[in-house]
Amino acid sequence: MRLRQIEVFHAIYTCGSITAAAKLLNVSQPSVSKVLAHAEQQLGFALFDRQKGKIIPTQEAERLIPHVNDAYDNINELRRISQNLRASDTGRIRVAVIPAFGIDLLPAAVASYLKIHPETTFEIETLHLRQVIRAIKEHRVDIGLVFDPPVMPGIKVETLGTGKFTVLTHESVLSKADQSLSLEDLDGLPLVNLSKRSPLGMLLGNHIETSKIKFHSVARVETYQMAKALVAHGAGVAIVDEITARSMGHDNVVARGLEPELQFKIAMLSNESEPLSIVAQKFVEHLASAIADFLKPR
Q1: Which of helix, strand or coil describes residue 35?
Q2: Which of 10, 32, 101, 248 is the most buried (most CB within 10 A)?
Q3: Euclidean distance between CA atoms 207 and 38, whole angstroms
Q4: Dihedral sign, CA of 199, 203, 205, 206?
């Protein structure tokens, strides 16, 4: 079957009539009927039976439709990728970040970059890790900024920095603000946990399990800024990434180092099959510098 025949067959099967299929495809009804007739002639069997003004899929059509659906999905993906590639011009940088970077670090990096390159425009999405990976594979974004990504086929990973876990407490808890804390110091305190669905949540969860300390978990959250907000409102203590700990907001939250240190990578993701544009490469260099400045001891 040719591409147009696949489109017409899929439209008729989905819509249930030639008239509705023609409307969906924005063509005339005779045009749809003609393409269908040619398809059936080439295949050597009927795809639909005509009964009392209705069009009914044949057994052969029912066996074909799962494969046609797969082909149609691939066609739509090809169109989407083509549109994204066409939209990726040299003056625009498309970035996807996980929520932790969207609070403070990325906005600061973009603002400082625009002062040097005011002709640049940005498209920014805040997504979870799996969504960032999908956006890169679909060429919807140029780069992604994430924590500790797994090895993935088709995705290039470049480490831009290293962060460490930080203990967050309400200012009314554990008065020695300049003192680093161990897991033992937190024993008996209500803990806001990170979901193990994220790389950092899994890393921290495994670290806590090996310590054999039984924490009283009061909440399990998906985003690190939610953990910080819960600490600010007195729900408990939390161990989060250094980026969230240093980001603006919640002045009544005190950040302390975790001892011994537990580190993680800050990584840039891009599509392995497509080199970054010159302007995107320049921004990645700027971003690496911005991350280093953001994490300097204060």
Answers
A1: helix
A2: 101
A3: 64
A4: positive
Distance CA 20, CA 27 (A): 10
Q: What's the helix, strand, coil split of the chain in %, to 5?
A: 45, 25, 30
Taking the CA atoms of residue 274, residue 276, residue 278 and residue 282 in that order, the dihedral angle to the nearest 10 degrees is: -170
d(CA 246, CA 260): 19
Residue with tokens 């897991």: 183
Alpha-carbon distance 101 to 146, whole Å? 8
Pick from 88, 99, 74, 65: which is nearest to 226 by CA? 99
Q: How far, CA to CA in Å, does 83 sit from each of 75, 88, 89, 283?
A: 12, 9, 11, 23
Domains of the chain by range and CATH? Answer: 3-87 (1.10.10.10), 92-154+270-294 (3.40.190.10), 161-264 (3.40.190.10)
Among residues 191, 264, 269, 257, the alpha carbon closest in space to that of 230 is found at 191
